[in-house]
Every structure is written in C-alpha cells, then in structure tokens.
Design goal:
Length: 839
C-alpha cells in the first residue's frame, strides 16, 4: 500500500545553482539545465522591452557562469555600473523560471521514489523510538551502578586538590626558606668584611633571580616587599664599601709607589755597579789576552758572570699588593659597573700623577729630585703591573698617554732646572739619577729616548761648568804651591801621590822619607783631572749618549789645554815673583805632567772600556807643550838674568891691564860656580833633555854677553892681557860645558858635547882671532870658513878698532928707535883696512 504525500514545490536558491537534486544524477541535471536555458532565451530577450538588449556574448557568458556555479557579482556590478540593470534582472528571472519548471518536471518524474523514501523514514522513526527506550533503560541501569563510583571519584578529586594545595604550600615554603637562607648568607658575608662582598652579591643576585624568574608571586607579600627593598640596598652598600676601600688603596699605593720607585732605582744602581765591577775585572784579561793566548776560558767565565748578573737584575724591583684593586674591579663588574669603574680609575690615576708632579713645587729641585723621580718610577711600575694583570682595567693606549704626560713634565722640569744650574756636581747628581730612572723604566718597556736626549743635550753645559770648577781648583793649587820638592814620609803617601797617577820614574819603591822631583801641584792637578775624567765618563756613560770614549777624550783635551795648560802658562807669563829654583821646579813639574797625561788617556780608556792597545796606537802629542815651553823659557829667562847680574861685575875688568888676571875674571868664576851648583840640583829634578836645552841656551847667552862686552861703548879699547883674561874665562866655561856634556852621554845624547861647545864658538873664534899672529887670515875665505865662520864682519871691525888703538899705544915707545914694525900690528891694520873697504 502506497502512501501518497503531497510534496510542496520549493524553489532552489539562485545562489546555489550547482546543488545536486535528490535522486537525480549530475549529468542529467546539467542536460536539463542546458535545455531549459536555451528554451528561455527568447522570452528573456523579449521581456527586455524597449531597453537595449544585451549582446549574444554577454548572455552566453551569463549562462555559462550560472551553469558553472560561478559568482555573478562581476555581472551585477558591471550592469549597475553601466546604469542598465534591467536586462540582467530580466535574464535572471528567466533563469529562475527555467529552474522552477525543471523542478516541477523532476518531481513528476520521481514522485514514486519520494513516496518510498517517506515510508522508509517512518519505519526508521519507529525503530528510533524503540532504540530510545532501550537507551533510557540502559541509562537508568548505568546511573544506579555508577553512583558509588561517582562518590569515590568526588572523594579522589577532593583528595587530589588537597594534595595539590599541600604541594604548592610546601613549594612556597621551600622557596621562602631558600630565600631566607640566601638572605642570611648575604648578611653573614656582609658582616665578614669587604673580602666577602662578592659572595654577598652572589647571594643577592640569587635572591633577585628567584624573585624575577618565577611566574607565580611569592605567597608572603611582606617577605617579598622586604626582599625587593633590601636587594638594591645591599648593592648600594657593596658599591659604597668597595669605593671606600678603593679610595684607601689609592692613598696607600701612592706612598708605596714612592718606596717602590726608590727600591727599583736602587736596584738599577746596584746592577750598574755590578756591571762596572765586572768590566773592571775584564780589563786586565782584555789587556793580557791576545789572539794567540789560551784565555778563552777566562773570557767565557766573564761572559757567564755578566749573563748571571743581567738575569738577576731583570727580577721585579719590589712586590706590592693589588688585591684591593682587583676586588674593586670585580665587584663593579658584578654590579654591571665595570666601564664606569675603568673611567673612574683612569681619572683618579691621572689626578694622582698630576699631584705627584707637585712634589718639586715646595722644595728646591736639587733636594726633591730623587723623590720626584722615584714617585714617577713607582707610579708606572704599578701601572705596568695593572696593565699586565688587571684583566683589561687599563689599555696600552691609556698607559702610553700617562707616560707621555709624565715624560713631557720631566723633560720640562729638567730643561728648566738645567738652564739655571751653575754647579757641575749638582747637574751630574740630577743627571745620574735621571739616567737611573731611564734604565729602570727601560726594563719595563717604557720609551725613554726623549729623556736621554735631554740629558745628552746638556752635555756641553755640564762640561763647561766642570771645566770652570776645575779651573778654579787648578788656580788655587798653583797659588798655594811654594814650588818646593814634595816630601813623602810614608808609603801610603807615595802610593796616593805617585803610584796612583803612574808618574813614578821606576817600579822600585824608594826609601822613605822620599823627596819627589815634583812639587805638590802635580798630584793636586792629577787628582783634579782624574776627577774630571771620572765625572765626564759618569755623565757620558749614563746620560751623555753617543761614543763615550770619543767624547771623554775630547773633553780631556779641553781640560788639559784650556785649564791646566792655560793656568800654568798664565802663572809663567806673570812671573809672580818666582825664583830660579821655583822656575826650575815648574819646568820639572811639566816633565812629570807629560807622564801624567799618558795616565789620563789610559785612565779614560779604561773607564770607557776601550782596550789600551788601541789607545797606544792613537797616542797624540803632549797637550801641555805651550806651558812646558813657557816654563822652560821662564827658567831660561831667570837664569839669564842671574848670569847678567854676575856679568855686570865685568865693569871691574881692567881692559888695559899690562898683565892678564890670574885665574880669569871674577865674574866668570862666580858664573861657573853658580851654574855648577844649579846643575847639581837641576839634574835631580829636571829631565836630561830639558837640562840640556837650558844649559845650551845659558851658554849661548854667556857667549852673547862676552861678545857684548867687547862691543860695549864703555870699553874704548882693550889690551892683549884683557884678551888673555877673556880667553881664560872662556876656557872655564868650555870646561864646564865639557863636564856637563858627560851627563848626557849615558842618555844617548851623543850630540850634547858638540852642541854645548858650539854654544861658545863665537867668543872662542873672536878670542882666537885677536890672539892670532895673522889676524888678516880672517879675510881668507877658506880660513874664515874653517876657523871664523861664526864671526860677523861689522863686529870684527869694531872690536879690531878697539884692539888696534891699544896696540899702537903699546908699540909707540919703540917708534923713535927705528925698530922693525910688529907683524901682528901690520896684519891687524891690514884686516881693519880691508874690513873698512868691504863695509
């Protein structure tokens, strides 16, 4: 039995054109749709009325879009945008009518299927009612059986909630306990002192991390508020305490730096002294070892000792504690204030360095220069340690900037004080300490070239001051000397005054008391020059720069020429009332000074480390030659004055005596005795070459004085007896010269005898001519060249005139007797006549 149900016709929505109809396959629907669309095209176009009908292409596109279920929005927008939506609406209405007709046809074709479907639905509804009742009964049974389980579940859920609350409470308690333990630990570290500040900050950071990292707040608001307020307070307290400790360290390190600098400079001075001692030990080895000697072992020992000394000198000057600085830096880094602390440290050190410069402001630089240099040295030794171990607290640029500022200040202070100094010892003292500072700083890799350049720049001024001081000392020594031979009673006096300067004439120690061939001026000047050499070497070696030996040799030449030579020459030129013995002592001193000059050169070479072999090869002339020649000239001048004094007694000579004086004239005896006495003293102190030159010059002067006696205007004429007396005088002088020449034969002075005899040759030739029986032989060139080559024509003419007048008076008593004329007189007349014609 079939149930007929009227199914109302419900139009499909236009927005869902592609919805599949029930009980109809999709291809059949598409065919029906296409057929209805083609059938409805004409009415749609006709219903458009008088509007402008759309084109075939537009209608085809619209149909295609509707069939494909595409969005009709673009068509609608375009129609309304054109202002003519009526064609579109009419097309859509036509499509709707076509679809309604399709639905009706579909319903007519499949209404039996619809009826069967409704029957199936009704049977399905009955089954659903049965199932519903079954489910209700099952539900009731389930409820009755699950009631105890639900009660147990509720109890379990309550217990689990309680356990969660207890766990949360325990976790919160543990958290609070841990925070309180951290707070107690931080408190203990704070009470322990600044050395535990870092641990306190670690505990505080742990508290802060616990409070900030947990999403749930602390269950105790009071505790949380307390901790949040105390954490910043602890950090501020730590910063304040470590800043105070750092300020105390800055004060203490300043005092420690001064001591540290003094110790470091003292170590440098000790190292320099050890090097000089090793060098002094090396000098005899250097002099004794040649290329053929087996002295390599000694030199190797010396090199090893030098290396050992250098290694020990390279140790740190002193230890100092930087723990407080490192702690302050670490605490500031923990507080995230590391960069600020670096700037703070650098600024405070700059201020401290500036205040260190003011050390010399209150006291004279001579008194405060050691403290000034020691403070700067200690400051930069500390900075070097901080740079190497501070973990980036300072950089090389910062340290170099501080050093450049200190170097500029030291250079300006040195130049200012050097320009005002007038004492060489003060300048040397400051230069030496500055050189030790440079040596100390060089060991810590600080550049010190500019500082050494300033010291070298004042080298000439230092030596000028030193020369002025030595000039004053030499002048005082010469003024205080009485120019007597120096007496030494003890061996230490001999060692101190003779051996110390290498001026001994023999290596054998003399018996004491010992009378030296020089006066006290010689060792005094030697001490002055030796001190000058040592001061010069000290300045040049430690602060002068360049070739030390060349510079010292240059300044040694200056002191010998400008000071010693000039002072002695000034003394000699002024005379100063010196006697002959004193002048002789001055000349003897000059001969000793010649040996002393060799010692000066060797001493300078030894102090400069130059081999003596090189010094021997480069030996120069005697630098005191001018003063030596002046001393000899003074001695000769005084001797000649003394001889003149004796020869003035020649006024008592009887020039027209009938008989010659027995034993010669008195002046000749006195001159001879005086010269013999003088020579006995002179040969003990004067070197033989000097004595020879002096004696020859004195004899030449005597020779000139004898010729001057004949030429004297007060002597109008003289007799043959007077000539015989002068001949006797000459024989005395010649005998003295012969005796003196024997002194020089042992000293390889073979020409001494002939030289001393030739000093008296002119008066001897004159006397021989006057005593000759044929004076006219003087006119014979051969005879004159052989026997009278020293005589002058004019002098011979004048003297012959005086001698002829006396001859005429002598022979006039025989003129009346008609006796034969004296041939000597005739020869003399011929000589005089020929000389007159020649003139």
């Amino acid at each position: 039995m079939f149930l007929l149900v009227a199914i109302p016709t419900v139009p499909f929505p236009l927005s869902c054109p592609t919805r599949q109809l029930p009980f109809l396959p999709q291809p059949q629907l598409l065919q029906i749709s296409m057929r209805r669309k083609l059938a409805g095209d004409a009415p749609a176009s006709a219903s458009a009325g008088g509007g402008s009908a759309p084109s075939e292409a537009d209608l085809a596109q619209l149909s295609t879009a509707i069939s494909a279920g595409e969005d009709l929005g673009p068509f609608v927008r375009r129609a309304f945008a054109c202002g003519r939506p009526e064609p579109l609406l009419s097309s859509l209405r036509a499509v709707a009518r076509d679809r309604e007709s399709e639905i009706e046809e579909l319903c007519r074709a499949h209404f039996h299927d619809f009826i069967r479907a409704v029957d199936d639905l009704r049977s399905l509804l009955a089954d659903a009612e049965v199932l519903k009742g079954s489910l209700s009964a099952s539900h009731s049974a389930l409820l009755s059986s699950s009631a105890p389980l639900l009660a147990s579940l509720e109890s379990f859920l309550a217990a689990r909630a309680l356990a969660g609350n207890l766990s949360s409470a325990l976790a919160s308690s543990h958290r609070c306990v841990r925070l309180l333990a951290l707070a107690a630990r931080a408190n203990d570290h704070l009470q322990a002192g600044n050395h535990s500040l870092y641990l306190a900050l670690r505990a505080v950071d742990a508290i802060d991390l616990n409070l900030a990292s947990r999403p749930d707040p602390l269950p105790l608001p009071a505790l949380r508020r307390m901790l949040l307020s105390l954490v910043p307070a602890v950090r501020v307290h730590a910063e304040r305490e470590i800043s105070r400790e750092f300020a105390d360290w800055m004060v203490s390190i300043r005092a420690a730096s001064r001591h540290l600098g003094q110790v470091a400079i003292g170590r440098s001075a000790a190292a320099r002294q050890r090097q000089e001692e090793l060098r002094s030990k090396h000098r005899p080895l250097e002099e004794s070892i040649t290329l053929d000697d087996d002295g390599a072992g000694d030199l190797d020992d010396f090199a090893a000792a030098t290396a050992t000394s250098d290694g020990s000198d390279g140790a740190a000057a002193a230890s100092f504690d930087l723990t407080q600085l490192y702690r302050a830096m670490h605490i500031h880094q923990t507080l995230a204030l590391g960069e600020r602390f670096k700037k703070y440290y650098l600024e405070n050190r700059k201020l401290q360095l500036t205040s260190d410069f003011d050390v010399i402001a209150a006291t004279p630089f001579l008194e405060s220069h050691q403290v000034f240099f020691a403070q700067i040295a200690g400051f930069f030794i500390v900075e070097d340690r901080v740079f190497r171990t501070g973990g980036g607290l300072t950089s090389r640029v910062d340290v170099d900037a501080l050093w450049e500022a200190a170097l500029g200040k030291m250079i300006s202070v040195l130049e200012d004080n050097f320009s005002r100094m007038q004492t060489a010892n003060h300048l040397l003292l400051i230069t030496d300490y500055a050189a030790l500072l440079a040596a100390t700083m060089r060991r810590y890799s600080y550049p010190v070239g500019m500082l050494l350049d300033v010291l070298a720049k004042h080298r000439d001024k230092y030596h000028d001051l030193l020369l002025a001081d030595c000039r004053r000392q030499v002048a005082e020594a010469l003024a205080a000397d009485k120019f007597d031979q120096m007496l030494m009673r003890k061996e230490y006096e001999y060692s101190m005054n003779v051996l110390a300067f290498g001026i001994q004439s023999s290596d054998i120690t003399p018996a004491f008391p010992y009378v030296a061939p020089f006066s006290c001026t010689v060792p005094d000047i030697c001490r002055i020059v030796r001190s000058f050499i040592e001061d010069s070497v000290s300045f040049m070696a430690h602060g002068g720069g360049g070739d030390t030996y060349a510079a010292v040799k240059k300044y040694l030449g200056r002191i010998l020429s400008e000071v010693v030579n000039a002072s002695i020459q000034k003394l000699v030129d002024s005379g100063s009332g010196l006697s002959v013995s004193q002048a002789m002592q001055v000349a003897a001193n000059m001969s000793i000074m010649e040996r002393a000059c060799e010692f000066f050169t060797r001493h300078a070479a030894q102090l400069c480390g130059v081999p003596l072999r090189a010094v021997e090869r480069g030996r120069r002339d005697f630098p005191l030659r001018k003063s030596r020649d002046a001393a000899e000239a003074l001695l000769l001048r005084l001797l000649c004055s003394k001889v003149d004094e004796f020869m003035r007694q020649s006024d008592g000579v009887n020039w027209i005596a009938d008989d010659p004086p027995a034993g010669g004239n008195e002046y000749a005896n006195e001159v001879t005795i005086y010269l013999e006495t003088l020579t006995s003293t002179a040969q003990q102190i004067l070197p033989l070459p000097v004595l020879r030159r002096v004696l020859v010059a004195v004899l030449v002067h005597i020779s000139e004085r004898i010729i001057a006696l004949f030429l004297n205007d007060s002597v109008k004429r003289f007799s043959a007896s007077a000539v015989i007396g002068i001949d006797t005088d000459l024989k005395m002088f010649e005998s003295f010269a012969e005796n003196m020449s024997s002194l020089f034969l042992d000293s390889h002075q073979d020409s001494a005898a002939s030289e001393m005899k030739s000093a008296l040759v002119e008066p001897r030739q004159l006397v021989n001519l006057l005593m000759s029986n044929s004076p006219e032989n003087f006119l014979n060139p051969v005879i004159r060249e052989k026997s009278y080559n020293k005589l002058d024509y004019k002098k011979v003419a004048i003297i012959s005139e005086k001698f002829r007048d006396t001859s005429e008076s002598y022979f006039s008593t025989f003129g009346t007797r008609g006796a034969r004329q004296n041939p000597k007189k005739k020869s003399l007349d011929t000589l005089i006549k020929r000389l007159r014609e020649a003139s």
